[in-house]
Amino acid sequence: MERDDLIVNDSYALNAHHSEEQGRAIRKKVYMVTIILSAITAVEVGMGVMFKRSETFTWTAIKWTFIILTLLKAGYIVMSFMHLGEERKNLRNAVIAPYFLFVGYLIFIALTEGASHFGMDLMFH
Amino acid sequence: MSGEASKAISKEVLWEGGRSPFSVSYGKMMMWYFLVSDALTFGGLLVAYGFSRAGSTAAWPIGEQVFRALPGLEGQYPLIYVALMTFILIVSSVTMVLAVEAGHRNNRKEVLKWMAFTIIGGFFFLGSQAWEWSHFIHGSGGSFLLAEDVTITGPDGNAIEMNAGEAVFMDHHFGHLMEMHLDGNPAVTLSGDADHVVLTELGDHPHEAHLHGLTINKYVEGETVLEGEAMATLWEARSENFSFGANLHDSEYAVQQSYSDFFFFITGFHGFHVFSGVIINIVVFFLVLNRVMERRNHYEMVEKVGLYWHFVDLVWVFVFTFFYLI
Fold first, then answer.
1. Contact (Cβ atoms closer than 8 angstroms) between residue B89 and residue B319
2. Edge-to-edge strand order for the sheet containing B238-243?
């Protein structure tokens, strides 16, 4: 079978070239993402300064807002700046799936242990 | 940018061998795998921080109370300096994307320009971090622990109970001289009692620091400055246990030593990544300058260091949230 999809000499990089016109569109997108990232950071700092830590629902909501905004920022950096969004789905999954699996488990187990440690400390201190 | 990855190839052919099923070069794929493993390391560090914090019954210091100084300025600017560092890193990440983009157009001059900006941004970040470390290590006034339980009257007339072992904080001038005094510097003498405590540094230009006020709960919520009688009560109840700034076995910021240790380890490990990133960027800058990429006819090396550089920015985004904000 004649194959026309083979790339020889490890030169996948050669296929990444783009024209001046495509470059302009890409740069426009890069500037957009820059503005979004800066705006999110500004909002985070503003919220951090404005709201006081307490055992209230408001603070819990703010904490989760921070986490969601951070994941959003991370998404923009990984998908746009690191071009993972433009890679093949296989590569994308090979990078993201194991990470979320392991770190998700680690977060769960460490916070469970931490909470238990907290309770023991209160009880036997 | 899309390049080879966006080309439609049937599944059978894609996995048949003879080509990379991810449609990326070996080097780029390995850079991604390295970044996954490195991200797990940072994830482990931040989760360990979360574990210490969740398991701690004593109050944990909060970012906007600890990090609120700006170089050369008096006053309090909570989180502004850290926000500035974040912004520097984001901008240097942007200049890196622009370098990669220029590489895809085989525009050597632009690659050089944007890489130079990226390197400068990296140095700015490292410099900022050096200042922040120095400020963190020197502290702002220091603290002493109480030797006995005391009850004092707060500024608004309410009674505040303080237990032995709780920390009380001094102001910057007084703390500075107190540290010299405790170090056994013969030029510094302590005189006065109750609310007229004076430290005098003798020399060509004698220099005095009066105890004007003491602060409780400085690095946690509800910071209160106490003067007069309450201040005198706290001063009289002091123990020998003074802390100035932070190092690996002592810290004015928290009773838990782990707080400062995590600061040093997490920001230090990240700073080391930034430092290596700057070095690798400089190496690649010179490769581009010497037309190595031009001879290869592609700038994938710029893309690979770019991945590493963005990763450093990505980690900082998480450090910023989990160490400073929350």
1. no
2. B224-226, B214-216, B167-169, B143-146, B238-243
Phi and psi for B62 in degrees, rounded to 5?
-115, 145
The yes-or-no verdict on residue B262 having pLDDT over 80 is yes
Contact B23 A87 (CB under 8 A): yes
For residue range B38-51, list pLDDT tens digits in order.
999 999 999 999 99
Same domain, B119 and B37: yes
pLDDT > 90? residue B213:
no
> What does pLDDT average to over chain A?
88
Q: pLDDT, tens digit, for every residue of B124-133?
A: 999 999 999 9
Check whether residue B91 and residue B29 sit in a common domain.
yes
Residue A103's nearest CA partner among B303, B193, B240, B322 is B322
In this predicted structure, the answer to whether residue B299 has a pLDDT above a threshold of 50 is: yes
The answer, yes or no, to whether residue B36 has pLDDT greater than 90, is: yes
- B83: CATH: 1.20.120.80
How is residue B74 written in tokens?
A: 């008096």
Structure-token pair, residue B38:
């490195």
Domain containing B220 equals 143-243
User: Of A56-70, B28-42, B186-200, B289-303, which gets the smallest average pLDDT?
Assistant: B186-200
- What's the pTM value of the predicted model, to 2 decimals? 0.91
CB-CB under 8 Å, A17 with B93: no
Whether residue B324 and residue A48 make contact (CB cut-off 8 A), yes or no, is yes
Residue in the structure block whose two tokens are 């426009």: A28
**B57 chain-A contacts, CB cut-off 8 A:** 118, 121-122, 125
- Buried residues in B107-121 as b, exposed as e (16+ CB within 10 A): bbebbbebbbbbbeb
- What does the alpha-carbon distance between residue A51 and residue B282 come to, in Å, rounded to a whole number? 42
Which among A67, A81, A116 has CB closest to B310? A81
- Across the interface, do B93 and A95 touch by the CB < 8 Å criterion? no
Dist. CA A106–CA B51, nearest whole Å: 10
Residue A110 vs residues A37, B49, B102, B275, B294: alpha-carbon distances, Å: 30, 10, 44, 30, 49
Domain ranges of chain A: 20-86, 88-125
B residues 89-148 lying closer than 8 A (beta carbon) to A? 90-91, 93-94, 96-98, 101-102, 104-106
Is the pLDDT reported for residue B151 higher than 50?
Answer: yes
